[in-house]
Specification:
503 residues, mainly beta, eight-stranded mixed beta sheet, 31 strands, globular, disordered N terminus
Length: 503
């Protein structure tokens, strides 16, 4: 990733910044650089870290702009090479570049373009607006003969239909496992630049507009621990919204209805109140397959799935999603999602992490939600317990299979697993270590900080794990042990970092 970022910086370094005047004329081709970034990990158990941006390379996106001479919105494909340069072509086949003279300048005195856009929805281009003949020109509520894919994008019907859709709708499913080719189409990545200097290189910071959700399972019941390793496990969720359109709005040909996504605002619309009538059953995370074990082989995770955000309060509308896991052998566990969650979020204004308590559970766009679930022995009717929810901004800093558990050390087994994982690879990009803490500082001079979440006591004489590198600290966080926080004790001896290093 570092090499890509350096190349991106080089690609943009020689050009004027966005919003600056340029001495070039309109015969210069439009050039684009873009990156997606994240805020690291934020969990209810601790703080996170601001993440780095990742350059967009080797993919095609859609560049939307006001066209010359009257500012009508138009689109052209933007092809990014391996170095992070984005070339905008009006005709990709002949590589005919989009020139600055083809872009409408609203503020001619300051030589500024009002706004340009970049997104990955090149299968849904901006369509030419054809005004309804009945439009009288006296109202802003204009109607068009066909969908305007700039203010209101229609994603269309399923093709082919999906057998396990239980509502019989014909909408396109906007859901797919993260990291699959289908997810590149389901996930919306979007960016906007305002008051762009004519002739400048355009540098976008793109945002994910969808939500990602995954689950991890563990149990303290020995029998269930073994069954979780089975190869015929099914995990599904009922009452989730997996399409953009709303039933009853099919075929609308105006800006009044079927507002699935606004390319202009980067917002997703879901008309109508949420509820069971608008939600899908049998949304599968795993079907007749293995869950993915963590390093300790005690926590088992589903894939992470991309799906449309739902910013409604589940508890208000009474349709909280319900999680099911079928382990086979008549062992089916289920439970409603929690109504609230605690989470940390980075405050851009305060430049620090802030904890939010008892937040109504919503699926916000641009965030990944991972639920840590404990399977119980069906005591007094309880079957599962949502232990915590981990919330992280979308970023490629996460590994291909994010670890979904608590970010910290909670028991001796965690401590042993941490040492083993660290000794295999103590570098900043060993993202499996993010299960226990975060990397702080630069790649060269930084170090890991692992969070101790509670006191750990083992008998005297227990052999300590040894760490083969010094670039780590253990944050005892404060709490049960008083001012000095939590501790790891072997017998009556408090363990320090020096005792953990190989001599």
């Amino acid at each position: 990733m570092a090499a890509v970022l350096l190349l991106l910086a080089a690609a943009c370094a020689d050009e004027p910044g966005v919003g600056m005047k340029s001495d070039v004329d309109g015969n210069k081709p439009v050039m684009v650089c873009a990156a997606t970034g994240g805020l690291g990990i934020a969990t209810r158990s601790g703080e996170g870290q601001v993440g780095e941006e990742e350059a967009i390379t080797s993919r095609t996106m859609l560049f939307t702009y006001p066209s010359y001479p009257d500012g009508e919105m138009a689109s052209a494909k933007c092809v990014f090479d391996e170095a992070g340069y984005g070339y905008v072509y009006t005709k990709v086949e002949t590589k005919e570049p989009l020139m600055w003279k083809d872009i409408y300048v609203q503020d001619k005195e300051k030589n500024l373009v009002e706004a340009v856009y970049l997104d990955n929805l090149y299968n849904y281009p901006v369509q030419k607006e054809e005004r309804n003949p009945g439009f009288d020109g006296k109202t802003d509520n204009r109607r068009y003969l066909q969908t305007d894919n700039f203010r209101m994008m229609y994603f269309g019907p399923q093709d082919p239909p999906v057998a396990d859709d239980t509502l019989g709708n014909q909408f396109k499913r906007m859901i797919a496992p993260l990291g699959t080719p289908a997810a590149e189409e389901a996930d919306i990545i979007w960016g906007k630049l305002e008051n762009v200097g004519f002739g400048t290189t355009l540098q976008f910071s793109l945002q994910h507009k969808m939500t990602a959700v995954g689950f991890s399972f563990h149990s303290e019941v020995g029998e269930l621990q073994q069954v979780l390793k089975g190869n015929k496990i099914r995990v599904w969720v009922d009452y989730l919204r997996i399409w953009m359109e709303t039933p009853g709005f099919e075929g609308k040909e105006s800006t009044e209805g079927n507002q699935a996504f606004s390319r202009m605002k980067g917002e997703i619309y879901q008309d109508g109140q949420p509820g069971a009538g608008y939600s899908q059953k049998n949304v599968f995370w795993v079907k007749d397959s293995l869950l993915q074990p963590d390093e300790t082989n005690t926590v088992f995770s589903t894939p992470v799935w991309v799906l449309p955000p739902d910013r409604s309060q589940f508890r208000v509308f009474g349709h909280r999603p319900e999680l099911f896991i079928d382990l086979g052998e008549d062992k089916v566990f289920h439970g409603l999602f929690p109504e609230t969650m605690d989470w940390w979020r980075y405050d851009d204004n305060k430049h620090k992490w802030v904890e939010y308590k008892d937040v109504p559970l919503k699926f916000w766009p641009g965030y990944q939600f991972t639920f840590n679930v404990k399977l119980l022995d069906k005591v007094e009717g309880r079957e599962i317990e949502f232990v915590n929810v981990e919330v992280s901004a979308w970023t490629t800093k996460l590994i291909e299979r994010p670890v979904l558990g608590e970010s910290g050390i909670t028991d001796w087994d965690d401590f042993i697993a941490l040492a083993n994982t660290y000794n295999k690879n103590p570098s900043h990009d060993n993202y499996r270590l993010m299960r226990f803490g975060m990397w702080h500082g630069s790649e060269e001079d930084g170090h890991w900080v692992f969070n101790l979440l509670q006191d750990i006591n083992v008998p005297a004489g227990t052999e300590l794990p040894k760490f083969n590198d010094v670039k780590f600290d253990i944050n005892n966080r404060g709490g049960a042990s008083g001012e000095n926080g939590f501790h790891i004790k072997v017998g009556d001896t408090i363990i320090t970092k020096d005792q953990l290093l190989k001599k």
